[in-house]
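Ionotropic receptor structure dump, as promised
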Amino acid sequence: MTLPFPQISPVTIEIANFLIVNLTNLLNTEQMWTIMNDDTTTSKDITTKFMLHIDIPICLLNDDLPSNQTFLQQQTSATIILINDTDSQKLHLIVKKLMRFEMYNSRVETVFVITSKVEDQNFLSDYLKIIWSYGIIRYLVAFFDGNIKSFSYNPFRNEIREVLTHGEKPEFPNYLTNLEGYTLKVAMFMQWPRVQRRKGKLIGPDVMLLENLARLLNASLSIVETSKSDSYSGAYRSVLSSQSDLCFVKYFFVYGEFPNAEYTDPYELNYVDVYVPNARPLPTYLTVFMVFNSLKWITIGLTFLTVLVSFKILSTKSDRNKIWSYCDIFMIMLCLTLGIPLKRLDKYPRVLKILLLPYIVMIFIFVVDFRSHLLNRFQFTSYQKGITTLQELAESGIPLYTFVNKTTSIPKELKEQYHIYPNLEFVSSRKTNGTRFAFALPFLWRRNIPMKPGTRPLEYHSIHETLMKGFGIYMFRKNSPYVEKFNQLMVNIRQFGLSSSKAIIGVSDPHFNNKNSTNDEHRKLTMSEVLSVFFILTIGLLLSTITFIFEVYMQK
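structure tokens r here:
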């Protein structure tokens, strides 16, 4: 296609043909275009003729030029910048002006077209570096040098590449797929338990996640450690001053907390768990009666009485010569219950054998069940009923301490009990005075009540209900070229399970979000724990001795 532009120079005609023919083939014609020029006469002429000869919706970013007022979709609109000069200072001003337009997206296709004839290409290196420094990724610089030429820039190799020769279809680069070993600088401070120091090196789930991201980008990782006291403010200042490329923000920060910053989409970490004081353990001798629930004990007692009374009635009717006392019948029932064999059972009347047979079978089942559960009681400690829900915590009235300053997410029942402290030292300070309290901590593994003797006794355990969800986002300076790529990588990490964070691998149920692990260390049994076991054994020995004495008495 050749346009009749007799009043315009041949260079301008060549540029116009380039825009209409080559860029139409390059860009999706269903997308809307944005055109911005530097207000020179040549650029205005090209813009006007361009709008007349192409049917794609166009929006002009210059206020003094006529516009068709087409609504521009920011995410899909390609942009053409017309510049009449190769001066780098002028390019700075034009790109800054471009960045001020809300409708412009620095991560879509952008073509910088120099509308004047270029005598040499010495300016090109500075031009390409300046554009990249503003976070524009997918861009080309085109100009007329006898022929239309187009160039892109790989910042990680510091390499200029010609991507368009005359008559060929151009392509936009996307160098963020391979950073060629580029060192990503990440602002981070030591924040237990997600980031901690071991042997002079920062480790933890957050560091592992960053290492996975760097590996996917073929980049190396350099941690710019900021002061822990500065928290995210120090990391934010490091990013804005270009000392770091990004920082990792968690603990429920939301968009807008820091100006001039961009964030990736939040992904879910684990949760803020509420830790409540353990209930008092039950005495060991009481746990014997807790082997069965009340319904089983009532069933056993009623069955025992029913068989006892039935035995008395049937024995009287079946054999009037022998009178069975309640004491004799009780001892028979007790021997059967304890598993002691009865002598001369074959001489009992048939009706009594039929009565005792179902009782023997039932008692055998209950005895096996009792003994197996009794051994379990010897191994694990039982506790009184403690706090298990947030509602019970609210009804208890004990204070709830945390350093998560997000009161809007707290249930209204806990508002008066919710106290915010600046760091974790409130736990140790409150323990010293012996007061009962609860605390909320994010990003920890759940801890159950330690049930097994010989393990480290924990004073607090987490309940199943969670106080609030936790999220993590990566923060960049505004117009950073890495934001969109990191969003894409986080999707890949979530899909393939490359992170140790539970929410990253898709677990959404707070009740099963964390491992129910106590992480207790084994130690020797204390004297009180040993004596409690011997107490139960002594009681069993006494009962067996009494039963044996009664058995000897009955044989006389």
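The chain has 14 helices and 18 strands.
lmk if u need the other ones
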